[in-house]
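Intended use. Records such as the Pentacotripeptide-repeat region of PRORP domain-containing protein entry shown here are meant for training and evaluating sequence-to-structure methods. They are not intended to support clinical decisions.
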Amino acid sequence: MLSGKRLWQVRRTRYSYNILGLVKKGEIEKAEEVLQSMIDRRVYPDIFAYNALIKGYVLTSDARKAFKTFNNLKKRGLMPSDITYTSMFAVCGRTKSAEILDKVMKEIERQGVSLNTLTFNAMLTAMANCGMVDEVFDEVTKLDKPDIDTYRSLLLACARSSM
């Protein structure tokens, strides 16, 4: 039999996987309801649950809800992960939400977060999609080892600037 703390962790994991499953099926509203149900039942969501929901907002191109969820996870004392930031960059780039992108980037700077290469490249792509061409080039100079995706983001920024 599971002890109280272990049972609580199992319940939280089940909820989180339920949210992810609903997101994968495109049932974002139901996923939101499950997250709220967790909170109502005092089964506090972990970063996995929040990341799953943010992924749903990427799929539905809803930057506003993604940013609200991003802020909610921080209010609950959780630290955004690389996955969180990558998803936020994806939704900002997809929706050309430069204002939200700027807020996320300022949060990263304020927290002193060091992005991995994948997340950094997602940020560059989002910046390029939002028309922040000069800023893309400024950011690339901060990267020690640019990879093929870094250069792809640079090319995208150049292409966007000539449109």
